[in-house]
């Protein structure tokens, strides 16, 4: 789908939000997904950034946002780019300004796996459920027939950047068995999957409708890639690996499937997956870390923000920053501490902050350096002849910066592969 197709379909959605017409979407044909090859994940993020002119924009690759109250929390957290990742169904909430409650319950025009077969939309859920509606629990029956509701976000902020995204789930493995609780987000992709009836409260499973992707995970990833609104921007994230007890070998398979699988959630709603991150990086694979609230935008203690470092305030620049790893993680994202420069010349890594911080330099060999100040400098090869204890290799380097003001802010650079 091209940028202009995306705009066209967004405008169509905006124009039709009250009329119930469907959201035209070129990327949802029944044909196998078609994707162009992409260069490998960037092994040296931040290269070429002019930090004196760069703009830093708070966002997240995985954040649910159901109403104005939620949106206000994101705005309070200084978000400048919204890629709402809602599900049930896994479909983008764009454009936010015009999006209506219940939109996808009455406008489901993408394919669903029905009894294991990919079946084209549209699906009229009112008609599908009607014959057996009497057998539903009262509280669900009362919701019928589904109708378009009011605006989801009556006060969408003027000028807020946004791009499609969704949290996809319900994948199958190579043998057609469930992949368990693997969840993936796809910031920058207009791809839609699954149905509204994830808990089967409306008994759609009795008709054979799969609630999620229902496809092999590799095919699903390829469809997400096919739906990218920019060829050189956006990507796919592997969500909450700790919560899902993601198998480590499976994580590598996901990363190896396509370089547009960007990496894993390192902070997700208070859960820290740095152990997964460092392990994947220690295999020599680049793996970006993303930092997300998921459902926990309300809870300051359990947060996570992606801070994009971009040359201009545009959707394309934001999605490119994701693809290139030109972003860093913040535990809170209130601006209590910020990176002002991250550079690596092939041998020396220099990281600067706007206020005094405690720095930790981490490699595959653990914490290699700790210091306090507004700058840390780490040299890759301190000695042309490493001493015996220096045998082995660092493989990657990344830096954590802890605020000293009591705020609890912690920043995380992306890894640089050595
Ligand atoms: Zn989620």
What does this structure look like?
This protein is of the alpha+beta class. It has 2 domains: 3-334, no CATH class; 337-418, Immunoglobulin-like, CATH 2.60.40. It is built from 9 helices and 19 strands. It has helices at 3-16, 68-76, 103-106, 125-129, 138-141, 217-226, 248-257, 274-282, 315-324; strands at 55-59, 81-82, 112-114, 117-119, 161-162, 167-168, 184-185, 236-238, 261-268, 271-272, 288-292, 305-310, 327-330, 339-344, 348-363, 366-379, 396-403, 410-412, 416-417. The strands form 4 sheets. Strands 1, 12, 13, 14, 15, 16, 17, 18 and 19 form a 9-stranded antiparallel sheet that branches. Strands 6, 7, 8, 9, 10 and 11 form a 6-stranded mixed sheet that branches. Strands 2-5 form a two-stranded parallel sheet. Strand 17 (396-403) and strand 18 form a beta hairpin. It is globular. Mean pLDDT is 90; it is low at 1-29. Bound molecules: zinc ion (ZN).
Short description:
The protein is α+β, with helices and mostly antiparallel strands and 418 residues long.
What level of helicity do the residues show? Answer: 10-25%
- Major sheet summary line: 9 strands, antiparallel
Number of strands: 19
Q: What are the low-pLDDT stretches, counting only 5+ consecutive residues below 50? A: 1-29
Amino- and carboxy-terminal Cα gap? 35 Å
Q: What is the residue-mean pLDDT, rounded to a whole number?
A: 90
Overall number of domains? 2
Number of H- or I-type helical stretches: 9
What proportion strand? Answer: 15-25%
């Amino acid at each position: 789908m091209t940028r202009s197709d995306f705009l066209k379909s967004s405008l169509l959605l905006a124009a039709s939000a009250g009329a119930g017409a469907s959201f035209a979407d070129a990327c949802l044909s029944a044909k196998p997904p078609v994707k162009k090859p992409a260069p490998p994940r960037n092994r040296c993020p931040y290269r070429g950034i002019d930090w004196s002119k760069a703009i830093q924009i708070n966002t997240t690759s995985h954040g649910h946002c159901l109403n104005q109250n939620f949106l206000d929390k994101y705005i309070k957290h200084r978000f400048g780019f919204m890629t709402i990742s809602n599900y049930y169904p896994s479909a983008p909430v764009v454009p936010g300004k015009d999006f209506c409650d219940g939109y996808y319950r009455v406008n489901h025009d993408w394919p669903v796996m029905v009894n294991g077969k990919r079946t084209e939309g549209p699906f009229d859920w009112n008609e599908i459920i009607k014959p057996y509606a009497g057998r539903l629990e009262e509280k669900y029956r009362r919701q019928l027939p589904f109708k378009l509701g009011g605006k989801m976000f009556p006060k969408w902020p003027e000028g807020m950047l946004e791009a499609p995204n969704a949290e996809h789930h319900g994948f199958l493995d190579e043998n057609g068995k469930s992949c368990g609780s693997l969840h993936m987000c796809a910031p920058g992709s207009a791809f839609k999957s699954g149905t509204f009836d994830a808990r089967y409260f409306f008994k759609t499973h009795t008709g054979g409708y799969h609630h999620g992707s229902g496809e092999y995970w590799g095919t699903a990833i390829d469809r997400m890639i096919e739906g990218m609104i920019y060829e050189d921007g956006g990507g796919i994230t592997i969500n909450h690996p700790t919560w899902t007890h993601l198998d480590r070998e499976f994580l590598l398979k996901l990363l190896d499937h396509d370089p547009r699988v960007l990496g894993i959630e390192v902070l997700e709603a208070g859960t820290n997956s740095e152990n997964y991150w460092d392990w994947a990086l220690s295999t020599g694979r680049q793996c970006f870390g993303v930092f997300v609230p998921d459902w926990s935008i309300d809870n300051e203690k359990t947060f996570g923000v992606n801070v994009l470092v971009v040359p201009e305030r545009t959707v394309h620049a934001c999605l490119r920053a994701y693809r290139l790893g030109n972003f860093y993680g913040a535990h809170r994202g209130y601006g209590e501490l910020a990176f002002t420069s991250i550079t690596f010349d092939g041998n020396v890594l220099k990281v600067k902050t706007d206020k005094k911080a405690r720095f930790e330099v981490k490699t595959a060999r653990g914490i290699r350096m700790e210091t306090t100040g507004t700058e840390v400098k780490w040299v890759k090869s301190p000695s042309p002849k490493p001493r015996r204890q220096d045998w082995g290799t660092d493989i990657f380097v990344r830096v954590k910066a802890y605020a000293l003001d009591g705020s609890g802010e912690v920043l995380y650079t992306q890894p640089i592969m050595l």
